[in-house]
Give the backbone structure.
Amino acid sequence: MIDVEGLCFDYPAKRALSDVSFTIEPGTVTALVGPNGAGKTTLLRCLATLELPYAGRIRLDGIDTGEEPLRARRLLGFLDEFFGLYDDLSVRRCLTYWAGAHGLSGDTDAAVLDAATRLGLSDRLEERAGSLSRGLRQRLAIAQVIIHRPRILLMDEPASGLDPEARAGLADLIRSLQAEGMTIVVSSHILVELQDYSSHMLIVDKGRIVDHAPIGGARAYRRSRRLRLVLSRPADGLARALGDVAGLAVTPDGLVAQFDFAEDLEAQAALLARLVGGGLPVAAFGEDHESLQDRYIEKLKASR
């Protein structure tokens, strides 16, 4: 869905992006992370066709953004960290305006109500945008960029200014948009929340790609769960007892095994019963939750 090749971007006194290349698959949620000044916002603005790179190529669903920027923009929704609203318009009129700007024709009332409902604004439709709190303004900005159901959604710090309940609602929204087939890129410093819905992590540091890979524990993407089995002492026949599981990895000391498990909880319980019944000294057994923050720090340190 998103193909970036050899992207370079220069500010007058600094190279912000240097030979950046990656591919983002359709229907995924990518966490774009990195230190302050790493080039994340510049990369998002290039993807959104708001900045023209010095070199390189960006394709959105096969469309070259340099050659056909207007056509590429029809696929996009982009939330800038420093967004603007028409403060004198009501929430309804703001959304109606954006529906028209994105090319929605005819009766846009259904699209306006759907976007407002998704962001918890259906009871605020007649209020002026300028009278809303910081968190509600953030919600309105998000509603505006999804009103046309874009195929690609780019979001820069979307949770900024949201209270905990609204942040949980944003995570639910991102998961539902992904389930509808939307490809989403989210830049944020709140790694705990990114882990809850992201399928991939793209790390940028000093204008270069440090790492780009699936996130093992992301519920939003994985068709299977990563399980972790801990033994109190090494035991023969562990692999045989586990059977034909995917991605099996056992630590050198033989005490910890990790593997992918695609079946339901009943099957997981049956596997545990079989392991214990077979005499294995099981000390712990459950889902292996990979820490996005730990992985981020590890990859960042390794790149320096």
